[in-house]
Amino acid sequence: MPNDERHNGRVSTAYLQPLLELLRERHIDPAQLCELAGLTQHELAGDSIAATSYLRLLDAGAARCDDAAFGLHVGERVKLGTYHVYGMLLMSCSDLGQALQQTMRYEGLAHDLGRSLLGRTGELSEYRWDSWYPDASRHLAESVMAGIRVFGDWFAGTSLPPTPVYFAHPAPADLREHQRLFGSAVEFDAPWHAARFPSALLAWPVPNAAISLHPILQQHADQLLLKKYAQQHEHEQVSAVRNAIRRHLASDCARLPMIALELGLSVRSLQRKLSESGLNFQQILDQTRRELAQTYLRQPALSLADIAFLLAYQDQSAFQHAFKEWTGMTPKAYRAHQPN
Fold first, then answer.
1. d(CA 262, CA 277)
2. How far apart are CA 65 and CA 33, in angstroms?
3. pTM reported for the whole predicted model
4. pLDDT at 232 > cutoff 70
């Protein structure tokens, strides 16, 4: 379900841990970064966050740390648990080739940032990572490729031989960190993000692989994947409601009967579908207002009165009260914390 995954993409909080670990090492409070990225600490407490939220955290972290190689440094901190349940499944594979096949099948359990592909032409194979967010900063692809490299060494129980690595984005000014991680054969402005290696490496055995557990772990991973797809189907309805609210907020028409009519549902049917997703209309309305408020507050040209109007509040004070309830900050304080 690629299209649904891209629209409702999620990143597991396990996959988020390397980024948070790097922030702790740099003595940066994650709560402060959440504010910069327009998120709340509450959003980090669940099993996953929106993929777009992860991208904002990645970029906010790079800016806060003033680190041009932030993505690489995040990827370096990848561990077995980073890849969620399918990380355990990989450790039950007999060789690297089987592990890459399982990665292509179960990568969605860790994130919806992109997908891995494996091609083999005779003695040469290519691992390719297809980003679902081509407009994201280079920190995304660099964190993924660095994570694959570091995890590959840990997975194999030794340092794998250096192989050519390719990035689709332009080369940064300083390549020292790239060459430290990948070796000297790093190229940019390539057609896609990839690594090429001898096909013989696919037969590289996994040390101490728990092969007997593979069928059990695979069955568990399949169940989790089916559950995720079912949840994404539920999220489609929530997304449709949220998009309708966005379209009609400024005209003060984002009301349950009007939204239900636009979606071709009765009020009762829409309420039931939202309830199946664990939400109600008022919660989605509040979430949408909060997200839009945070976006608008990053636009200096909009006054607080303008924003209150765009969000269909009766007056500015009502908006200010609601915003403080959501974030614990006044709109003015939140705006002051945003980078120039």
1. 20
2. 10
3. 0.69
4. no
